Amino acid sequence: MALKNKFSCLWILGLCLVATTSSKIPSITDPHFIDNCIEAHNEWRGKVNPPAADMKYMIWDKGLAKMAKAWANQCKFEHNDCLDKSYKCYAAFEYVGENIWLGGIKSFTPRHAITAWYNETQFYDFDSLSCSRVCGHYTQLVWANSFYVGCAVAMCPNLGGASTAIFVCNYGPAGNFANMPPYVRGESCSLCSKEEKCVKNLCNYFLMKCWMLLEW
Questions:
Q1: What predicted TM-score, i.e. pTM, was given to this entire model?
Q2: Is the peptide bond before 173 cis (omega within 30 degrees of 0)?
Q3: Average of per-residue pLDDT values in the chain
Protein backbone atom coordinates (compact mmCIF):
# COMPACT_ATOMS: atom_id res chain seq x y z
CA MET A 1 0.00 0.00 0.00
CA ALA A 2 2.83 2.37 0.90
CA LEU A 3 4.49 1.68 -2.45
CA LYS A 4 1.21 2.30 -4.26
CA ASN A 5 0.75 5.61 -2.45
CA LYS A 6 4.31 6.56 -3.32
CA PHE A 7 3.69 5.94 -7.02
CA SER A 8 0.44 7.91 -6.80
CA CYS A 9 2.27 10.86 -5.28
CA LEU A 10 4.93 10.70 -7.98
CA TRP A 11 2.26 10.57 -10.69
CA ILE A 12 0.46 13.61 -9.24
CA LEU A 13 3.77 15.45 -8.89
CA GLY A 14 4.50 14.68 -12.54
CA LEU A 15 1.17 16.10 -13.61
CA CYS A 16 1.84 19.24 -11.59
CA LEU A 17 5.25 19.67 -13.21
CA VAL A 18 3.79 19.22 -16.69
CA ALA A 19 0.98 21.67 -15.92
CA THR A 20 3.48 24.20 -14.57
CA THR A 21 5.66 23.91 -17.66
CA SER A 22 2.71 23.98 -20.06
CA SER A 23 1.32 27.11 -18.46
CA LYS A 24 4.45 28.94 -19.56
CA ILE A 25 3.87 28.16 -23.22
CA PRO A 26 1.76 30.89 -24.84
CA SER A 27 -0.94 29.96 -27.31
CA ILE A 28 -0.78 31.30 -30.86
CA THR A 29 -4.19 32.85 -30.16
CA ASP A 30 -3.10 34.61 -26.96
CA PRO A 31 -3.53 38.37 -27.60
CA HIS A 32 -0.68 39.23 -25.22
CA PHE A 33 1.71 36.87 -27.01
CA ILE A 34 0.63 38.16 -30.42
CA ASP A 35 1.06 41.79 -29.34
CA ASN A 36 4.51 41.08 -27.93
CA CYS A 37 5.63 39.44 -31.17
CA ILE A 38 4.27 42.24 -33.35
CA GLU A 39 5.55 45.07 -31.17
CA ALA A 40 9.09 43.69 -31.00
CA HIS A 41 9.25 43.10 -34.74
CA ASN A 42 7.96 46.57 -35.58
CA GLU A 43 10.13 48.31 -33.00
CA TRP A 44 13.30 46.92 -34.56
CA ARG A 45 12.08 47.34 -38.12
CA GLY A 46 11.63 51.04 -37.36
CA LYS A 47 15.16 51.38 -35.99
CA VAL A 48 17.26 50.00 -38.83
CA ASN A 49 20.50 51.78 -39.66
CA PRO A 50 20.87 52.96 -42.36
CA PRO A 51 17.21 54.06 -42.32
CA ALA A 52 14.70 52.40 -44.61
CA ALA A 53 12.60 54.29 -47.14
CA ASP A 54 10.13 51.44 -47.67
CA MET A 55 9.91 49.45 -44.41
CA LYS A 56 6.38 48.09 -44.00
CA TYR A 57 4.53 47.74 -40.71
CA MET A 58 4.23 44.06 -39.82
CA ILE A 59 0.95 42.37 -38.86
CA TRP A 60 -0.07 38.95 -37.54
CA ASP A 61 -1.19 36.15 -39.84
CA LYS A 62 -3.07 33.22 -38.29
CA GLY A 63 -2.03 30.81 -41.03
CA LEU A 64 1.66 31.59 -40.55
CA ALA A 65 1.21 31.15 -36.80
CA LYS A 66 -0.33 27.70 -37.35
CA MET A 67 2.56 26.81 -39.62
CA ALA A 68 5.06 27.99 -37.00
CA LYS A 69 3.33 25.97 -34.29
CA ALA A 70 3.26 22.80 -36.38
CA TRP A 71 6.99 23.09 -37.06
CA ALA A 72 7.89 24.07 -33.49
CA ASN A 73 6.10 20.94 -32.27
CA GLN A 74 8.47 18.85 -34.38
CA CYS A 75 11.29 19.96 -32.03
CA LYS A 76 13.91 20.14 -34.76
CA PHE A 77 16.49 22.91 -34.57
CA GLU A 78 16.51 23.28 -38.33
CA HIS A 79 14.43 25.03 -40.96
CA ASN A 80 11.20 23.63 -42.31
CA ASP A 81 11.94 21.57 -45.41
CA CYS A 82 9.08 23.19 -47.36
CA LEU A 83 10.58 26.69 -47.41
CA ASP A 84 12.30 26.43 -50.79
CA LYS A 85 9.32 24.80 -52.52
CA SER A 86 6.79 26.96 -54.35
CA TYR A 87 3.46 27.16 -52.48
CA LYS A 88 4.29 24.07 -50.39
CA CYS A 89 4.38 25.74 -46.95
CA TYR A 90 1.27 27.89 -47.02
CA ALA A 91 -1.09 28.54 -49.93
CA ALA A 92 -1.22 32.31 -49.30
CA PHE A 93 2.45 32.80 -50.17
CA GLU A 94 4.66 31.25 -52.85
CA TYR A 95 7.58 31.20 -50.40
CA VAL A 96 7.69 31.65 -46.63
CA GLY A 97 10.58 32.93 -44.50
CA GLU A 98 11.53 31.54 -41.11
CA ASN A 99 13.53 32.45 -38.00
CA ILE A 100 14.22 30.04 -35.12
CA TRP A 101 15.41 30.67 -31.56
CA LEU A 102 16.38 27.98 -29.04
CA GLY A 103 16.88 28.52 -25.31
CA GLY A 104 15.56 28.13 -21.80
CA ILE A 105 11.89 28.82 -21.22
CA LYS A 106 12.69 30.78 -18.05
CA SER A 107 14.58 33.41 -20.04
CA PHE A 108 12.22 33.42 -23.00
CA THR A 109 10.06 36.30 -24.11
CA PRO A 110 9.25 37.12 -27.74
CA ARG A 111 11.18 40.37 -27.35
CA HIS A 112 14.26 38.53 -26.01
CA ALA A 113 14.38 36.20 -29.01
CA ILE A 114 13.55 38.85 -31.61
CA THR A 115 16.16 41.22 -30.18
CA ALA A 116 18.75 38.45 -30.45
CA TRP A 117 17.91 38.16 -34.14
CA TYR A 118 18.11 41.93 -34.61
CA ASN A 119 21.51 42.08 -32.91
CA GLU A 120 22.97 40.18 -35.85
CA THR A 121 22.97 43.59 -37.55
CA GLN A 122 26.54 43.97 -36.28
CA PHE A 123 27.57 41.20 -38.67
CA TYR A 124 25.77 42.59 -41.73
CA ASP A 125 27.32 44.98 -44.23
CA PHE A 126 24.58 46.83 -46.12
CA ASP A 127 26.92 48.09 -48.84
CA SER A 128 28.30 44.68 -49.81
CA LEU A 129 25.14 42.75 -48.81
CA SER A 130 27.36 40.32 -46.93
CA CYS A 131 27.61 38.75 -43.47
CA SER A 132 30.83 38.37 -41.47
CA ARG A 133 28.98 35.87 -39.26
CA VAL A 134 25.41 34.53 -39.15
CA CYS A 135 23.01 37.37 -39.93
CA GLY A 136 20.16 35.79 -41.87
CA HIS A 137 17.80 36.12 -38.90
CA TYR A 138 18.41 39.88 -38.94
CA THR A 139 17.89 40.32 -42.68
CA GLN A 140 14.62 38.36 -42.60
CA LEU A 141 13.43 40.36 -39.60
CA VAL A 142 14.01 43.65 -41.44
CA TRP A 143 13.05 42.51 -44.94
CA ALA A 144 10.83 45.43 -45.91
CA ASN A 145 8.28 43.48 -47.93
CA SER A 146 7.90 40.62 -45.42
CA PHE A 147 5.08 42.20 -43.47
CA TYR A 148 3.01 39.21 -42.36
CA VAL A 149 4.26 37.13 -39.45
CA GLY A 150 3.10 34.27 -37.26
CA CYS A 151 5.05 32.83 -34.33
CA ALA A 152 4.82 29.93 -31.89
CA VAL A 153 6.62 28.32 -28.96
CA ALA A 154 7.03 24.67 -27.98
CA MET A 155 8.88 22.79 -25.24
CA CYS A 156 11.63 20.57 -26.68
CA PRO A 157 13.50 18.65 -23.96
CA ASN A 158 15.21 16.57 -26.68
CA LEU A 159 17.07 19.73 -27.78
CA GLY A 160 18.80 20.42 -24.49
CA GLY A 161 16.85 19.70 -21.34
CA ALA A 162 13.52 19.76 -19.58
CA SER A 163 13.25 23.55 -19.78
CA THR A 164 14.40 23.95 -23.40
CA ALA A 165 12.01 25.84 -25.65
CA ILE A 166 11.97 26.57 -29.37
CA PHE A 167 10.49 29.76 -30.81
CA VAL A 168 9.62 29.85 -34.50
CA CYS A 169 8.45 32.80 -36.58
CA ASN A 170 7.32 32.46 -40.18
CA TYR A 171 7.16 35.39 -42.58
CA GLY A 172 5.26 36.15 -45.75
CA PRO A 173 6.21 36.96 -48.36
CA ALA A 174 9.64 35.43 -47.73
CA GLY A 175 12.79 37.53 -47.62
CA ASN A 176 16.50 36.77 -47.81
CA PHE A 177 16.79 36.53 -51.57
CA ALA A 178 20.38 36.38 -52.80
CA ASN A 179 22.13 39.61 -53.77
CA MET A 180 19.18 41.75 -52.72
CA PRO A 181 19.14 44.33 -49.90
CA PRO A 182 16.49 43.79 -47.22
CA TYR A 183 15.11 47.29 -47.81
CA VAL A 184 15.72 50.48 -49.77
CA ARG A 185 18.06 52.81 -47.95
CA GLY A 186 16.74 56.35 -47.64
CA GLU A 187 14.74 58.79 -45.54
CA SER A 188 12.27 56.87 -43.41
CA CYS A 189 8.89 56.37 -45.12
CA SER A 190 9.94 58.34 -48.19
CA LEU A 191 8.78 55.45 -50.40
CA CYS A 192 5.51 54.76 -48.63
CA SER A 193 2.55 54.72 -50.98
CA LYS A 194 -0.23 57.29 -50.73
CA GLU A 195 -2.37 54.55 -49.15
CA GLU A 196 0.11 54.19 -46.27
CA LYS A 197 0.66 56.33 -43.20
CA CYS A 198 4.13 56.74 -41.72
CA VAL A 199 4.11 55.54 -38.10
CA LYS A 200 7.39 55.19 -36.19
CA ASN A 201 9.36 55.00 -39.45
CA LEU A 202 7.11 52.30 -40.89
CA CYS A 203 4.72 52.38 -43.84
CA ASN A 204 1.42 51.39 -42.24
CA TYR A 205 -1.34 50.61 -44.74
CA PHE A 206 -3.62 49.03 -42.18
CA LEU A 207 -3.73 52.03 -39.85
CA MET A 208 -4.48 54.36 -42.74
CA LYS A 209 -7.28 52.05 -43.86
CA CYS A 210 -8.79 52.06 -40.37
CA TRP A 211 -8.65 55.83 -40.21
CA MET A 212 -10.33 56.14 -43.59
CA LEU A 213 -13.13 53.83 -42.43
CA LEU A 214 -13.59 55.86 -39.26
CA GLU A 215 -13.75 59.11 -41.21
CA TRP A 216 -16.28 57.58 -43.60
A1: 0.86
A2: yes
A3: 89
